[in-house]
Design the sequence.
């Protein structure tokens, strides 16, 4: 049986025997290259579930909304790490969640597919283990999945969920641990880095899709929404946009699991992973910390060790 | 009238001194209507831009007026924009959106002077859609790939030239006495009619929205809203990129270099955000995503119809394409259309 069949059978059973009352998974979307989050409550609906390389959302995002239900949730490797983060931060109760892990070889990035077909409208897509074939008016293109994969997936070492009550699919090989992209960016002269961020920030329309797609952005009131007093101007421009994105990136320091849900949610393609991955790299290099691996562990910013590096502390 | 494609740049340049010319263009990877600094910059090949053209009339952020309190009392200087503008290459759906914005900003009861000054000084040159996308649903909302509502001119691509349809005296004035235009032949009109028939045939069948408004009239408390909004993450993609969404926020920004002075700004706002209806008391009448999502649907397909006789949607498909979780408004409308009237609706 393929992963999708196992997934459906698993969910059918969970709902039939009343082990859970709600399952959050992926269904086919209304557009090619899109799946959609689906919330199912009956065994019959289990056939709506799909598993493919278009399962781009981090469904852990929805969990804190359902404090009183027993839920099963479909998670990829990165989603499982986000769930671990939510458990560490007491946003989700472990005994209320049945975790259906699916081993993941990376998700296809719509933006890269669009670039590869020159922005033409894709009206149909087919997937095989190695490739996707996209079609539109007057064109057909075979794209190796590797070429259209979301960048973080290419260097993902956690395709196998770190936390799961059942894991579907064979174990996948870990990617190469690489931050070449960030290292290269760090080495650019400061004016070039500044120009880059100015350009990225100018794209932002402050729709907050990034924040709202992020499982770790669960604050009841986001700092940008505070109005008494107001911390951030409603003006949409370089400085205020940067204030938001820096604030968000810092709030995610030691918490971001590199799932990329924010970047894929962004309607205008702001390079959000530049900031996120820089902080992931710093957490690794300065504190030897990786987010979302140990449900019993403590969040990086919730711990202090006198030996922590920190030129900004009195010890220096 | 006919204009050769090789003359477009010169045509646009012929009035760039008098008008600011907005045209679809990509800047930093994002498409929108941007000011052309030369007619030759026009390279856009696509259909709808990511950013909607409403921002030509209703920018995402604008300074309404500056104020200063001094010895002579309060001094206010308004920042009107009455520069003459041409929006070139606007699609028929987007042009219709201006018509809906007019209802709101140029109503009998209230006139928005900032909007009015821009609107009165803006001409719209439309571009007919030869190959509508699968996400286009303008024909469901009374529009069409060759619709002329709100336009001063409609251009139809005939390969190496455009057929130019003059729709208003202002449009006529823009092309009159310009050397680029020649009379169109019968064959040109026939080619344009055939192109329109082809474009219409390429569109998905129109949605039947006849049952939507009647159901919404009674469906405010229906359990339907719980489930249909479940995957919504509450961002502003659909509303900010919507060409007809027009809600805004006003705030004062104090000057940083002197006391008792500042500027009043207007910025886009959205029913999707919790802050949108948060009262000073702390009470929020739309406390969860369910109420906020319902408001978006209700405003577009119930209240707007009630107020102005038409739905506040032009079927451009931006919200469909860009929703981060594929919450497709077409699907929502189709679901509403098959809801059982009166069943479990509450009061």
Sequence:
């Amino acid at each position: 049986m393929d992963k999708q069949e196992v997934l459906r059978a698993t969910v059918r059973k969970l709902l039939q025997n009343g082990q859970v009352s709600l399952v959050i998974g992926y269904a086919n979307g209304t557009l090619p290259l899109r799946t959609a989050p689906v919330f199912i409550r009956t065994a019959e609906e289990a056939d709506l579930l799909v598993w493919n390389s278009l399962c781009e959302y981090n469904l852990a995002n929805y969990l804190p909304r359902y404090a009183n239900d027993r839920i099963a949730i479909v998670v990829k490797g990165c989603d499982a790490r986000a769930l671990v983060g939510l458990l560490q931060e007491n946003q989700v109760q472990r005994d209320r969640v049945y975790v259906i892990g699916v081993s993941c070889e990376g998700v296809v990035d719509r933006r890269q597919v669009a670039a590869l077909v020159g922005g033409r409208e894709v009206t149909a897509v087919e997937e095989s283990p190695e490739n996707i074939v996209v079609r539109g008016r007057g064109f057909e293109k075979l794209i190796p999945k590797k070429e259209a994969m979301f960048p973080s997936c290419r260097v993902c070492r956690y395709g196998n969920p770190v936390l799961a009550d059942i894991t579907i699919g064979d174990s996948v090989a870990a990617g190469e641990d690489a931050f070449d992209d960030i290292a290269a960016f760090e080495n650019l002269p400061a004016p070039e880095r500044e120009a880059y961020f100015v350009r990225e920030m100018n794209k932002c329309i402050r729709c907050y899709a990034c924040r709202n797609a992020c499982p770790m952005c669960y604050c009841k009131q986001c700092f940008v929404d505070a109005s008494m007093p107001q911390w951030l101007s409603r003006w949409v421009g370089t400085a205020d946009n940067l204030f938001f994105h820096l604030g968000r990136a810092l709030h995610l320091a030691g918490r971001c699991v590199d799932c990329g849900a924010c970047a894929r949610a962004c309607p205008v393609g702001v390079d959000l992973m530049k900031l996120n991955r820089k902080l992931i790299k710093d957490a690794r290099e300065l504190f030897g910390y990786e987010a979302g691996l140990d449900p019993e562990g403590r969040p990086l910013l919730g711990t202090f060790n006198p030996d922590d590096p920190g030129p900004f502390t009195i010890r220096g | 009238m006919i204009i050769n494609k090789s003359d477009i740049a010169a045509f646009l340049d012929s009035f760039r001194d008098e008008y600011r010319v907005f045209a679809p263009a990509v800047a930093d990877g994002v498409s929108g209507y941007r000011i052309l600094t030369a007619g030759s910059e026009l390279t856009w090949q696509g259909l709808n831009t990511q950013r909607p053209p409403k921002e030509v009339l209703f920018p995402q952020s604008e300074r309404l007026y500056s104020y200063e309190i001094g010895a002579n009392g309060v001094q206010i200087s308004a920042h009107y924009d009455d520069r003459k503008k041409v929006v070139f290459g606007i699609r028929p759906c987007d042009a219709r959106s201006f018509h809906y914005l007019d209802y709101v900003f140029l109503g009998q009861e209230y006139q928005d002077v900032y909007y009015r000054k821009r609107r009165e000084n803006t001409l719209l040159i439309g571009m007919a859609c030869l190959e509508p996308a699968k996400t286009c649903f303008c024909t469901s909302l009374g529009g069409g790939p060759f619709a002329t509502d709100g336009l001063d001119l409609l251009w139809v691509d005939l390969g190496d030239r455009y057929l130019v349809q003059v729709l208003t005296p202002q449009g006529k004035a823009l092309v009159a006495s310009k050397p680029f235009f020649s009379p169109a032949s019968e064959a040109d009109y026939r080619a344009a009619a055939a192109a329109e028939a082809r474009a219409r045939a390429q569109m998905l069948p129109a949605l039947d929205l006849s049952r939507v408004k009647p159901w919404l009239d009674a469906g405010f408390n229906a359990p339907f809203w719980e489930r249909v909004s479940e995957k919504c993450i509450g961002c502003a993609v659909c509303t900010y990129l919507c060409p007809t969404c027009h809600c805004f926020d006003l705030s004062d920004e104090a000057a940083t270099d002197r006391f008792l002075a500042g500027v009043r700004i207007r910025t886009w706002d959205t029913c999707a955000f919790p802050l949108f209806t948060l009262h000073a008391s702390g009470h929020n009448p739309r406390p969860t995503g369910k109420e906020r999502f319902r408001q978006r649907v209700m405003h577009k397909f119930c209240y707007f119809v009630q107020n102005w006789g038409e739905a506040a949607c032009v079927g451009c498909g931006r919200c469909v394409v860009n929703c981060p979780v594929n919450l497709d408004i077409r699907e929502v409308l189709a679901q509403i259309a098959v809801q059982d009237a009166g069943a479990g609706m509450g009061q």
User: Anything to note?
Assistant: The CA atoms of residues 79 and 240 of chain A lie 30 Å apart. The radius of gyration of chain A is 20 Å. Chain A touches chain B at residues 29-31, 34-39, 57, 61-62, 119, 121, 123, 137, 199-200, 202-203, 205-209, 211-213, 221, 225, 227, 230, 233-237, 264-269 (CB under 8 Å).
